[in-house]
Specification:
The protein is α+β, with helices and mostly antiparallel strands. Helices cover about 25% and strands about 30% of the residues. Strands 5-4-8-7-6 form a five-stranded antiparallel sheet, covered by helices on one side. Strands 1-2-3 form a three-stranded antiparallel sheet, sandwiched between helices. It is elongated, with a radius of gyration of 22 Å. A hairpin with a 4-residue loop joins strand 4 and strand 5. The longest helix has about 30 residues.
């Protein structure tokens, strides 16, 4: 249903515009879609802020209702809330796993998920999220806002222990996930 394959349609346009859209009857590019009314709303990943997909509500054009776009928006928002709750549970599991790790017994450390969200920390002045280097590997890494750290795998995340001599760089701001 991309714009190139299906012409103007709610799914393709929501993906291109990255916002909610409603395409009714002859607003569709292809004539075989003129009997439909469709609403498409993007779903955003609350962890990475990346576009995951689109909720589509399609009904026969003669049965269309002005609230179709509102329904699609509500469904996308519900999906976003579920994804956010799953992420909260993942961070909680990572936090519990962290307390079994030797690094959590002293010094400065942070436990982050693969997107840089902080599950737990014993660092002074840590943020809610840090920018992890692309392709992070175990060993010495420089984390903007924290400085040099020693990265160790922990489940699906990382323990970042204080280490090295590089001072902390100014923190990099990361945009939060797009609001619904």
């Amino acid at each position: 249903w991309g714009e190139r394959q299906g012409g103007t349609n709610a799914i393709g346009m929501a993906l291109v515009r990255r916002q909610a859209v409603h395409i009714h009857a002859t607003e569709h590019f292809l004539s075989n879609q003129h009997d439909w009314s469709c609403a498409g709303v993007p779903i955003w990943d609350p962890r990475s802020a990346g576009l995951l997909g689109v909720v589509d509500v399609s009904v026969p054009a003669q049965q269309s209702h002005p609230a179709t776009l509102s329904l699609a928006s509500l469904l996308a928002h519900t999906a976003h809330l579920e994804l956010r709750e799953r992420h909260r549970r993942e961070l909680e599991q990572l936090r519990h796993l962290a307390w079994t790790h030797p690094a959590a017994r002293g010094g400065e450390w942070s436990v982050v998920d693969r997107h840089g969200w902080i599950a737990d920390a014993a660092d002074f002045g840590t943020q809610r999220r840090v920018r992890l280097p692309d392709g992070i590997e175990p060993g010495a890494v420089v984390i903007p806002g924290l400085g040099e750290r020693v990265a160790e795998r922990l489940g699906d995340g990382w323990v970042l222990r204080a280490g090295g001599s590089h001072p902390a760089a100014p923190p990099e701001l990361i945009s939060p996930a797009r609001p619904m």
